[in-house]
Design a protein that fits this description.
The chain is mainly α and 70 residues long. The chain is built from four helices and no strands.
């Protein structure tokens, strides 16, 4: 559903669901899922021109991927 919202340009809804997904993934310690959530959130911020926020979330994803050597 999150990607559908993003594709339909309902970015507030997409961001809401990406954040919910991130919280669930953190609760179950799903590391690669957390990184994916960070990327998705970063993409929404990039699309909306919030580049500082986008960079923050993309950097968090990068750190996780580097730790896992993905």
């Amino acid at each position: 559903f999150r990607s559908v919202y993003r594709n339909q340009n309902k970015l507030d809804s997409a961001l809401y669901y990406f954040n919910n997904s991130l919280n669930i993934r953190k609760q179950i310690n799903f590391t690669s899922g957390i990184a994916t959530s960070y990327l998705n959130i970063g993409n929404i911020y990039f699309i909306t021109g919030k580049y500082d926020s986008s960079f923050y979330y993309m950097s968090k994803a990068k750190e996780i991927y580097e730790e896992k050597n993905d």
